[in-house]
């Protein structure tokens, strides 16, 4: 029995075929192809006008640096950002809040501080910066944020993640854009 097993394990040298040699690599005159695709010019890209066209420096102005072409920080929340933040607010409003009466609609429109802390902690900003954002947006001091406060807080965190420093005070234009309604300021009386 052992002889049968030993003979089956032994590799017969006379009947074994050598593996075929690997294919030879030929030197190609160009570089190897990568996974990156070549840029394609589609009809949309060719017909679309360029947003920023650089003007030649020099000539008419001594110190020309294209200041107008630079992207500046916005002082308002865009409609797209507001909708995204309102979606987060809508999915978390009313959690962990006990209303004193079942018809208390105001409580169901708030997001509790523990829920806000959990959501904002996902940004991985330091706790002291998140506390500073809370102090900037918490006007009621009741341990919860309403819709506008939450939207502005989320926007401030996004701005901080993009490298902008937190302001000392949130501007009126940000608060107006958070509600989606722009209220015109008081106008002076016209003299007759």
From TrEMBL:
Low complexity composition bias: residue spans: 1-17
PROSITE patterns (alphabetical): EH
SUPFAM superfamilies: EF-hand (SSF47473)
Annotated GO CC locations: cytoplasm
Record-linked Pfam families: EH
Compositional bias annotation for Basic residues: 49-72
Polar residues bias spans: 30-40
Domain EH span(s) in chain numbering: 81-181
InterPro entries xrefs: EF-hand-dom_pair (IPR011992), EH_dom (IPR000261)
Alphabetical list of Gene3D superfamilies matching this protein: EF-hand
Disordered, as annotated region: 1-75
PANTHER family hit by this protein: AT21416P (PTHR11216:SF31), EH DOMAIN (PTHR11216)
Protein name, UniProt field: EH domain-containing protein
């Amino acid at each position: 029995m052992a002889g049968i097993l030993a003979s089956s394990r032994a590799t017969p040298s006379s009947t074994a075929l050598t593996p075929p040699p690997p294919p030879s690599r030929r030197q190609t005159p160009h570089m190897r192809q990568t996974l990156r695709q070549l840029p394609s010019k589609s009809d949309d890209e060719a017909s679309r006008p360029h947003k920023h066209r650089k003007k030649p420096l020099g000539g008419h102005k001594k110190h020309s640096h294209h200041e107008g072409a630079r992207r500046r920080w916005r002082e308002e929340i865009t409609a797209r950002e507001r909708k995204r933040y309102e979606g987060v607010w809508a999915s978390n409003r009313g959690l962990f809040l006990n209303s004193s009466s079942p018809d208390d609609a105001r409580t169901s429109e708030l997001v509790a501080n523990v829920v806000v802390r959990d959501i904002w902690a996902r940004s991985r900003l330091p706790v002291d910066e998140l506390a500073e954002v809370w102090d900037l947006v918490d006007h009621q001091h009741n341990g919860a944020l309403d819709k506008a406060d939450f939207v502005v807080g989320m926007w401030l965190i996004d701005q901080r993640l993009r490298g902008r420093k937190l302001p000392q005070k949130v501007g009126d234009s940000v608060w107006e854009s958070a509600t989606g309604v722009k209220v015109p300021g008081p106008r002076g009386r016209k003299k007759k």
